Amino acid sequence: MKYVKYFFLLIVSLSGVILFTACGGQDEKKTEVRLAEVTRSIFYAPLYAAISEGFFEEEGIDVDLTTTWGGDTTMTTLLSDGADIALVGAETSIYVYAQGANDPAVNFAQLTQTDGTFLVSREPVEDFDWDDLKGSTFLGQRAGGMPQMVGEYVLKQNGIDPHEDLELIQNIDFGNIPSAFASGTGDYVQLFEPTATQFEEDGVGYIIESFGTESGNVPYTVFMAKQSFLDGNEDTIERFTRAIHKAQLWVQEQPAEVVAESIVDFFEDTSLETIEQVVIRYRDQGSYAESPLLQEDAWYLLQEIMDEAGELPMEVSYEDLVNTEIPTRIMNE
C-alpha cells in the first residue's frame, strides 16, 4: 500500500506539472495586439466589454490598449507601426489613401454606426425646432473632424446654413469645448457623452437633440489596420473581429446596468449611474453597431457628408478600403 500511495502522489505531482505546462503553453500562444484608440469614450462600450468579459481572451488575444487622443495622432501611430490596429473614424483612412499611401489603412470592423454627439442648449427648450438655432451662437467641433462634418450636415439637412444663419465657433480645442460652454461661451454646443449627461445633471445645459439620429448610419468609428498587417495576420484579425462581434451582441442583450458594471473600470471619473444612462442613450438610438460588417451605403454616406463639408479629397470605392471577407465569415459562423 505504501508503494501505491507513493505512486499515486507521483502521478498527481506529474499531472500538476503537465497542467502547469499546458496552461503556460496556452499563455505563450496568446497573440498580443497593440490597439490604439482615438479617445476613451462610453461610445466604445463593446470594445471595453470585449476586454472585461474575456471575449479577447477566449480568442487567444492579449490586447495592449493605448489611448492616442485624436485622429491625426492615432493614424500616425498606426502608419509608423506603433500599433497593429487603430480604432478611429473611417474618414482618416480616406485622407491617407488620397495622399497616395503604398500601404493604406483598411477598415475591417465597424464599432459605432452613428454620430455620438448631442445638441445641448444653455436653457431648457420646449418643442425644439432647428430654426431656433438661427441667429444663435453655436459652439461646434473642430473643422475637418467627423463631429463637425456631421454637425454641419445635419444643420443643412434641417435648413440651417452653419456659416450664414448662426455664429459658428470652431476654433476651440476638443478638450476645452465643454469648459468653454460651461464658462458662458455659446447658446448651443455639440457635445459627446458623458459630458452631455453630466451637464444635464449639474444644470449646466440640456440635451435637446441627437446628431446621431439625425445623420443616419455612417461608419463613425471603425477598426482598421494597414493592408500589409491584414495580409500577414489574417487569422489574428479574424479572431479579433470575432471577439468584437461577441461583445457587440452581449452589449445589446444585457441590461444597461450590467454593461455599465462591466466597463466602469475604464472610466474612473464617471459614476456608474451616469455610465448606465449613457449606455441606454447610445443603445436606444442605435449607435452601437450590432455587426462588424461596414455597409456599402454607409460608406458612401460618409463621403457625402465629407463632401458637403468640403473635406473629401477624392471619392474612394468601397472595395478599395473596406475588407468585407473577414466580418462576413464571422457573421456566417
UniProtKB/TrEMBL annotation:
UniProt entry keywords in alphabetical sequence: Signal
Positions in coiled-coil regions: none
Signal peptide from the UniProt entry: 1-24
Entry annotated with the keyword Signal: yes
Entry's localization field: Periplasm
Domain of life: Bacteria
Primary location: periplasm
A Pfam entry, by short name: NMT1_2
Family indicated by similarity: Belongs to the bacterial solute-binding protein SsuA/TauA family.
Protein name from the UniProt record: ABC transporter substrate-binding protein
Organism in which the protein naturally occurs: Evansella tamaricis
